Amino acid sequence: MRLGGTRGGCGRALGRVLVLPVSDPLALLFGAPLDSAGRPRGEPPDVVVVARSAAELTGLSLPWGRVAGLVLEEEAELPAAVPWVSGVAGAAARAQDAAIALVDADRRTVHLDPEAPVVAAHQAEAERLDPRSRLYLGFEHQVARTLDGRAVPVLARAQAPGDAARAVAAGADGIVILREPDEGALEAALREAGGKPVTVAVGSQERLRVLAARGEMAFTPALPAEADGAVFWQARRVLDDSGVRVPLAALVRLDAGPPPGEWELPAGRIFALCGRCLDAAVAPRLADLAAAGARAAASVAAVVERTPGEALLAVGLGASEVVVRPEEVAATKGAIREAVADEWRGQARLLLRSAQEDGS
Question: Which of 76, 171, 280, 360 is surrounded by the fewest CB atoms within 10 Å?
């Protein structure tokens, strides 16, 4: 069911429905309204709150969930940091029987129990999922957030047959293949990924040309970074000549030495290979790379071996994403959800100070 509003903020939000006021105040403490939708207590789901007036939102607290979106029947301006739509006539009554709501504040619309294509389109935009694939609505597939609200996507490194499938089952936010696969392995990994975003190392311009000649490319190619960025300009030319429109990613080996200096990369994503240990030698390189990525509006994904502690340390050093082994995905997401990003930034500063003292 699609409802229209008269005012709205910005952004989109998908979550379980909670209609105010509730008949039992204890439901706000224990999340009882969500149990009927089949979610076990204790999970912190995203919640779309539906109310008749802004007054009903006063003092709202959900210890068991995160308010992801707001819907109001009355027309009002909400100083909210989440997507909201107001002036939605009859929203509270119509949402009583709904399990899921999609708030599209940009279009001032609310979808109650949206159909699969609507949810898929939202996920494709927000999480870079293939809209033709199955939907991932379970808690394990939500992007992990620290206690102070920082979202940290957790990707999985696929190295062997079946790794991509195991990673997806564990809730990985994407798949990364760092060793260039043969044709059969690539096709198998793309099937196992089930529409989750896939990044694949491509070792040569000729290989990229062969892949691009097939037309649509269902993954992001990743190429080794060079100081002058020439390899990326050449790769972009190959893709443009083939009519393929996909982003490019960069691969940087931090365990082999400092990253290139002030490069000019036409890549919005940088995968930082930290080696076997994120130690005092590698940590400053990751911090420098993350700072360079921030200046270039590029995300930096740290590929770590020892998780989840190293994953959190990488976040403290400035990485916006982490890449772990498939069997470590669930534990890493759990650790992120129990962590405070500011505390790990403090840990990172201590490591950087130690590295500076060792080098002096």
Answer: 360
